[in-house]
Amino acid sequence: AYPFPVSESPLVAWIPGRALGWIAYIVIESFGGLVVNALFWSFVSNTTTTISAKQGYPLIFLAGQIGSLLGPGFVVGFSESIGFDGLFYTASVIIMLIPVAIEWLMSHTTKEVMQSDEGAVHHVKKKAGMWEGLRLIATHPYLMGIGVIAVAHEIIEVIIDFPFKVLAADAYQGAKMASFLGYFGVANASIATLFSIVGTSFIVRKVGPKRGVLIYPILLGIVVSVIWVSPTLYTYFAAMIVIKSLCYSLNNPVKEMLYLPTSEDIKYRAKSFIDGFGAKAFKGGGSALNILLSNNIIFYGSLVSLGTVGLWIIVAVAVG
Question: Which of 49, 62, 150, 293 shows the greatest Cβ crowding within 10 Å of its Cβ?
């Protein structure tokens, strides 16, 4: 039984499987890519200096990881009692609180606090076309490199996530599958939160972006190699935790710092294009590879992943 009338509407009867799952996935992916990755971080990078970013960025990602821990924990604890409809309504209320929080921030923060690096190129007022972000990326090799660092993990994550979900579905069914993924979310957020506390700040302050951009792709190369040798459910379980938790708590803070010395045009237009279109295009490309390589996804998927890691490391050295 579906908790929402839209799921039983003939307007969505043509959608294979459960319409609610498709709709929810598309909405969540769009919200995360456009609002969180593109708009929020464009706003932050344009109102933060390099010095304050080294102190503040780890705290922002730590707060995000606490939310990532509370979310799966809420699902594990209340999914059976309030059902899917209760979970959706709760998420909707939380999302609607975001504009309230932004309004409060803008009205209670002074202009002196919201400063970018001195000497940065300021915004040149001109009419921006739809593809202005792509034009900026195409004409600046540094931005091309940031684009690779920002989205290369999407291909690897999708290639590894697909067999992980298939193996999990074979081992668990129904509510047990939901519970298994809930515990996976808790474990993922717990590791990311712990690393945000003890590791992110150290790497950002002591290692810096120059060498910090190399740590994550090297770790991914090791993870892919381990999966290739031992492709079990719990090997994939551990691999996905490493990929997701360190992407958020390690790769993202270092990646965001790469935008600090750039102009306002780049921070809004090019960054939005990379985090929005670029990330979704690479994720779609990884899904297409899963379809093409489904007969032997472990072998060929590992080759593609290791090749991506190799290119990523070369680009990271150049950008750093």
Answer: 150
DSSP letter for each residue of 136-173: HHHT-HHHHHHHHHHHHHHHHHHHHHHHHHHHHHHH--
Closest to 159 in 3D by CA, of 236, 229, 246 = 236
Average pLDDT, the chain: 79
What proportion of the chain, given as a percentage, has pLDDT over 70? 82
Q: How far apart are CA 210 and CA 194, in angstroms?
A: 23
Contacts of the segment 77-81: beta carbons below 8 A, 24+ positions apart? 79/175, 79/178, 79/179, 79/182, 80/175
Residue 204 near residue 212, CB atoms below 8 Å: yes
N-terminal to C-terminal alpha carbon distance within the chain: 53
Q: In the chain, how long is the greatest CA-to-CA distance?
A: 59
Structure tokens given for 290: 């899963």
Question: What whole-number distance in Å separates Cα of residue 57 and Cα of residue 44?
Answer: 9
Beta strands in the chain (DSSP E): none
Answer whether 115's CB lies under 8 Å from 47's CB: yes
DSSP code, position 3: S
Q: What is the pLDDT of residue 16?
A: 67
The answer to whether residue 4 scores a pLDDT higher than 50 is: no
How many angstroms separate the CA atoms of 22 and 151, rounded?
23
Contacts of 259 (CB under 8 A, 6+ apart): 41, 45, 146, 266, 267, 271
pLDDT at 254: 84
3-state helix, strand, coil in the chain (%, to 5): 85, 0, 15
Render 47-99 in DSSP notation, one character per residue.
Answer: T--HHHHHHHHHHHHHHHHHHHHHHHHHHHHHHHHHHHHHHHHHHHHHHHHHH
